[in-house]
Amino acid sequence: MTDTSVIEAGYEADFGDYVTLLKPRVMSLVVFTALVGLLVAPVSVNPVIGFASILFIAIGGGASGALNMWWDADIDAVMKRTQDRPIPAGRISGNNAMIFGLWLSVIAVLMLGLTANYLAAGLLAFTIFFYAVIYTMWLKRATPQNIVIGGAAGAFPPMIGWAVATGSIGIESILMFALIFMWTPPHFWALALFMNQDYTKAGVPMLTVTHGRRVTRNHILVYTIALVPVAIAVAFTSIGGPLYFVTSVALNAMFLKGAYDIWQRDEDQAEADKYATERKVFRVSLYYLFGLFAVLLIEATAKGFGLNWAAWPQWI
Amino acid sequence: MSGADNNASGRRKRNNIMIGLVLFGFVGLVFAITIVKMASGPADVANSQRVSTTQEQTQ
Lengths: 316, 59
Description:
The structure holds two protein chains of two kinds. By secondary structure, chain A is mainly alpha-helical. Chain A has helices spanning 3-8, 15-21, 24-40, 47-71, 73-78, 94-115, 118-142, 146-166, 171-194, 196-202, 207-210, 212-233, 242-264, 267-272, 276-304. Chain A starts with a helix and ends in a 12-residue tail after the last helix. Chain B is an all-alpha fold. Chain B contains two helices and no strands. Chain B has helices at residues 3-39, 41-58. Mean pLDDT of chain B is 75; it is low at 43-59. Classes of the chains: A mainly alpha, B mainly alpha. Chain A binds chain B through residues 12, 14-15, 46, 48-49, 52, 55, 111, 114-115, and chain B through 8, 11-12, 14-15, 18-19, 29-30, 32-33, 35-36, 40.
């Protein structure tokens, strides 16, 4: 729908439509992981600076979401899950969404630079660029490896949070990045298994579309196995500890069990129960990431109260 | 005024209030950041420069 037809049709965008453009659910994950990155860092940050920085990171993440919705409006219009988004539904024109996304990106990056430091701002700018240009405009429609490489965009927030506090990039922030980076493929492939029709209809070359569900099930298991050592390695850094170690072992066991269950199933079984296991693993993967970052926060809080695990090894 | 007009007018009013609140919040946040920044590091640098300028003038 063109800009003129939106106006002629008498639609008027609500404030809420612009909030929807920012992908609030994705934003909540960005906020949470960035906040953990900021709070687990060994440098304390003024609460006003910390709050403002997280807000600008969230706005930057939201801006990249708006740019993604602008570019992918044609795909969103075809997919059932995204048909009601403001652009395909005709409530906001694509042009307005693009301008909104670009302005928010500029404001978020500049303000983060002025509020925190230019390393954090540079990382945020790169994240927006990576998500909007590398992932959305290029990888998503070009290769079944789209979410493997594109997952980096979602992995940057804790690194930005860490950079806000320390002004640098440490091994801890690299491991938090790696954790989300490795978690993204099995998470989205589990989703793709039960949303395959949508992706096929929209012509998005997800692994399920290009190589089929059997290959995707194999990939989920392999990537989940590769994720485990990364997740557990965090326990042996300055931000880890025994509580994180125990939780990560338990959560990794759950995720691995889910990936194994997915791998074991064939299409007949999955069709019979309407992909119940795949849906369950998708949910488990969300709890997995939330749980790991929540425990990092608890470890940091405990250390803040002077509870140091003196005997706990820090090998990394 | 018809019900539809009333509805549209009410919606527009709500949208304007929300935008106003967001802008007000943004200004407040920038103000708070400025205060915090002035109270910490950069203020010291600015003060030291002012002192040295004053010293130069005295000499």
